[in-house]
Amino acid sequence: MKIFLALWYALKALARLAMIGMAMAVLGSGSAHAAAATGTGKVQVEVVGKGRPLLLIPGLNSSAEVWRKTCLALKGVQCHLVQLPGFAGAAPADPRPAEFLPAMRGQLLAYLHDQHLGPVVVIGHSLGGLLGLQMAQAEPAAVSALVVVDALPFLPAARDPNATADSVRPMADQLRKGMLAADAAQWQAQLKAGLPGMTRDPQHQAELGRWGEGSDRQTTADAMHAVMTTDLRGSIASISAPTLVLGSWAGYQPMGATEDSTRAVFQAQYAKLHGVQIAMSARGFHFLMWDDPRWLQEQVQRFLAAHP
């Protein structure tokens, strides 16, 4: 079990992949739930505001609530805040999909079609960033622009550039097995151990801990397995949507990393995505929308203005 936990922590340190989740917040005034492509065990979407449609996807185990302040700070947009099933207290998919990422990608694209939204800007954090990349590949006409927040096309390659989906699959299998075999105390300890590397704010760390405890463990394990075995480094060459990638390097600084060395990892992984823009935050940890909110909002607002 210790091997699985050590690997889990190492992967989180490498990519700041979120391990959090909680129930959707009560709707605020002027917002509404979308009826299409939602329901028990399916993607849920809350619509906030009026203007250019943005689909905001949270990361592994995360709540849609993580995007609310960003949504309210952006001008002239209508936010479609996504809650993925099994995370954040939401009911897990029933039946559980054989492949988590393709299933979620399909539900999100179905939501866009059902709501007749036309091309939208997709903003995804961590696992949500992978989903955005997959959506832009699967249906280019559905995505007008893409913002990826602290996510890499192939997580294991951050540690070993020669890694492949096949080479890491046995390790991913063992990690999932270990996650599911952990008792309640081990699981809670596992969730809490990585919180300081996720965000600088102790209050947000505590919130993330509550979110993690509210997530469905099987869904978390399946999703993490999918992330580890999904390699998009080559296929992103087919993406035609303008893409902005926002990364974090501040959390690596205590380990000797620099902005240049961290940027080099992102540039190598996104090398085949034509025209990609990459910007690195010197302040934020994985949850850039919390740790460096003004920087992230300015980056997104400027990107939206450049790609109307």
Number of strands: 8
Tell me the span between the first and last alpha carbons. 50 Å
- Biggest sheet descriptor: 8 strands, mixed
Give the strand order of the largest sheet, numbering strands 1, 2, ... along the chain: 1-2-4-3-5-6-7-8
Mass-distribution shape:
globular
User: Which range does the strand content fall in?
Assistant: 5-15%
Question: Radius of gyration over alpha carbons?
Answer: 18 Å
> What string, H for helix and E for strand, traces the elements in order?
HEEEHEHEHEHHHHEHEHH
Q: Average pLDDT value?
A: 87
Helical amount: 40-55%
Question: Which class do the helix and strand fractions yield?
Answer: alpha/beta
Low-confidence stretches: 1-31, 33-39
Oligomeric state of the chains?
single chain
Number of helices: 11
What labels would you give this structure?
single chain; 308 residues; alpha/beta; 8 strands; 41% helix; 15% strand; globular
Overview of this protein structure:
The chain starts with a helix and ends with a helix. α3 packs across α4 and α5 (165-181) packs antiparallel against α8. It has helices at 2-15, 68-73, 100-114, 127-138, 165-181, 184-193, 202-213, 217-228, 259-269, 288-291, 293-306, and strands at residues 31-33, 44-48, 52-57, 77-83, 120-125, 143-149, 243-248, 277-281. It has an 8-stranded mixed sheet with strand order 1-2-4-3-5-6-7-8, sandwiched between helices. The chain has 308 residues and is of the alpha/beta class. The chain is built from 11 helices and 8 strands. Residues 1-31 and 33-39 have low confidence and may be disordered. The longest helix is centred in the middle third of the chain and has 17 residues, at 165-181.
